[in-house]
């Protein structure tokens, strides 16, 4: 669906133009392959949460494996992979095929590895049936030992199914976990919190203005942050009829309104009423929530892709003359208010920029934040080219000046080892995802050789 095409460094709180860091691609490896489960999900379905994490010199990754002749929807099982100096190894997998969705990962610094799982409690072949969300805890000293099952605690009224739309976060420094799971009936996100003593607590629910899914979740110093995208059936009947006529597809969910929710103290205060960060509702557009990072001052940094018009045929009929563009948007929220908005890259008629299709943050240090983006740039002679690109971004307010980075197999969609999953800030960028051969999951290790201040 996407093709990795740039790596751009966003340098925070450092005035003026910064020297360009040098990126070195140290490894590109095929980890495993995937057989489509045909259940509406896939290995990247949980894009709001990560499936790769780093602990010092060891990388962990979560994958799903499809069961042969097991009927959907819950026809996959989790796998836990580990990479050290000897390379990748499958260290453990589930015994039965009871998962529909991929299983997000989290780590504590010097402590356990965790998987968020959602096994079905119904017979094989059940669709939209009940599931029992758990968190599995693995001992890093014996990663092949049977994991400990942790039982999250929820507010009353849960109805959890194989469509969990869950978000999972680990505060690697404090040793806390945060899990969200959607109520299939009401659309509320239920919240469960594991404190630093290992006790689970029900923390109420988050009710967005409309059903919102695929959440990015961050837990940092007791504060909790959630970024989620509206996910509802097309509300405009006229647009719905035209889309059915043009595409022939009765599936017609739209993703147009981006929301953010926050509590400064998860243990003592409920989530404040969500705010709407952006919307393309009026122009039949599309928004993809990409990533969330919380800095040391408690500000939330948001990354998302915005398309003012999702389909050219809708644009042509209802918004003639307006361009079809992709915009990579960056925003900062402080104390519940958007204090900065910036377009990092976008489709331009002069062809002089990168056309973005996907992106993630990577935290180099407390003062340096990177954004890893998929898109199309310009090669020799101005020709369109899929490649890896990067560029430093100081205190300016415009797009990123990009230069190519060599990768043999540019990834289409990808995850990163992020502080939201408990990984430390690092000069090492861990990418886990797919390239043109989309049924093979790949790993790339990219190092920022010149870190700067």
In short:
The protein has 453 residues and is mostly beta strands. It has helices spanning 237-247, 312-318, and strands spanning 4-11, 23-33, 52-55, 58-66, 76-84, 87-93, 105-107, 113-117, 134-138, 148-150, 167-171, 176-182, 189-194, 200-206, 212-220, 223-230, 232-233, 253-254, 257-263, 275-279, 286-294, 300-307, 327-334, 337-346, 355-365, 368-378, 384-386, 388-390, 392-393, 403-405, 413-416, 428-434, 440-448. The strands form nine sheets. Strands 1, 25, 26, 27 and 29 form a five-stranded mixed sheet that branches. A four-stranded antiparallel sheet has the order 2-33-32-31, with no helix packed on it.
Word description of this protein:
The chain has 453 residues and is mainly beta. It has a single domain, classed as Neuraminidase (6 Propeller). The protein is built from 2 helices and 33 strands. The protein has helices at 237-247, 312-318, and strands at 4-11, 23-33, 52-55, 58-66, 76-84, 87-93, 105-107, 113-117, 134-138, 148-150, 167-171, 176-182, 189-194, 200-206, 212-220, 223-230, 232-233, 253-254, 257-263, 275-279, 286-294, 300-307, 327-334, 337-346, 355-365, 368-378, 384-386, 388-390, 392-393, 403-405, 413-416, 428-434, 440-448. Strands 1, 25, 26, 27 and 29 form a 5-stranded mixed sheet that branches. Strands 2-33-32-31 form a 4-stranded antiparallel sheet, with no helix packed on it. A hairpin with a 2-residue loop joins strand 25 and strand 26 (368-378). It is globular. Mean pLDDT is 91; it is low at 1-18.
